[in-house]
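S., here's the first fold you wanted:
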Amino acid sequence: MPSHGELTSDSQSRSIDTVVAWIQRIYLPRRFVRCCPRLFKKNNPDGKNSNNDDNDKEHSVHDIPLISGVDHVVNGSLPASESIKICGIRPPRYLFYMLSGGLCDVLQLALDLFVHRVLVVEDPSLCWAIGFALSIVARHTSHRYLVFGKYVGGYWSSLGRMYAGYSIIIFLSTSFNFIMTRIAGVPHYMAWAITLLWTGVVNYFILKRLWSFGGQNNKENKKAKAEGAKQQVFIKRKERDLEHGADVRNHLGELKDSTANRRSLKDDAEIHARFS
């Protein structure tokens, strides 16, 4: 018999899947899509229009979801930068890096405030170094799901490489922060913001190299992406087959009705000829 913890975990998983499925069932209004020819052409290369009305419950294969690919992020098969599409268009990877980094910057600021005000550490450079070092664990997880994808060599190996790569940035940024606060006399959190601006850009290029680790992770992500694309093609093909089958059934029904009508007219003519 499953334990209470397993039942709770299964229930949470089903709830998350339900929310993700609901999000991915939100489609752009067709009138809006038809008003944007470039958007329609990009997501409907064969140029076919849907004949269904806006109030139809069933969606055509040519309908454009507001957001797609969330399920791949939740199950961890692909990062958001390689699976998420908004209105059928994939945003650039750096946008997801900014989102991931921004969330972790808020955490780093909270850690800096905690060290400065609760632990009463007066040195701004030391507060920066401690907050930055502690936020790397959160950055590691956030970048895995939003930007770069699966860990290469396992979680701990990837985290160790990240700390090794960030060690140079921690030293350089702490030194820069020290010069800003002690020599230039810049206030604590103004120097914190200035230091954050340039480290964010440099970190992206360091992480891009560290995470790929000789291209192994890129190969894994491309493989997962190819498998996901095959699944999407298979699903769309099935949907087209179903639509085609419905069209054939409707056509056969019309032929059947037409044949029945002709037989009825023929019978009426024979009866009329017999009694006339």
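And the second, which I think is the more interesting of the pair:
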Amino acid sequence: MDLKPDLVSISAGGNDLIRPGGDPDALAEKLDAAVQTLSSDGATVVLFNGPDTASSVLGRIRGKVAIYNENLRTVAARHDAVIADMWSLRQLSNSQMWDEDRLHFSPLGHHTIAAMVLDSLNVPHNLEPLFPKPLPSAAGARPARATSYGPGVFCPVGHPPDPAPLLRRRHPAETPDAGTRLRSCRHHPAPELNRSRVGHRDRG
């Protein structure tokens, strides 16, 4: 705090909520202490809540995110902080707002969030809304066999990986069991096996 900032933004807690056992109440307590320290020096604090994950591969932690968001509102009210409300930003339900790893935002998502933050702070700006590009029609598109979800991770179309093991692969030092749950995905594109034929061959 030696620089005496007048504006501080905090976006935290997402990785912790994804991990098994992530506690939205304990996270909010830690954040409350940080916001108290920052605001006591006169800085305006912007708190990013979590986006609504109902339509994404993170849907299984939607309840945790909702609890965490309500805790953040309490923290914000206590310290006169500003909420950057990503939960209410319905544009984020579009898959093109997200990076291919489904954990981080795409440039389009970041642009949309930036405009929302400026509006939340009542800061005039000239950021024009950007919209997702139309997806190719089914008639003119060549059907894909597999989708890449980052370096060395391919899954059948329509079957995205659980983001938790992908997170462990990014942080192997913190999670020694990295990659152990990626059995449904492959490290190179390949056709699926015909299990009925394999079983028939095994029976001789």
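Why I say that: The two ends are 73 Å apart (CA to CA). Confidence is low (pLDDT under 50) at residues 174-184, 192-204.

Talk tomorrow,
H.
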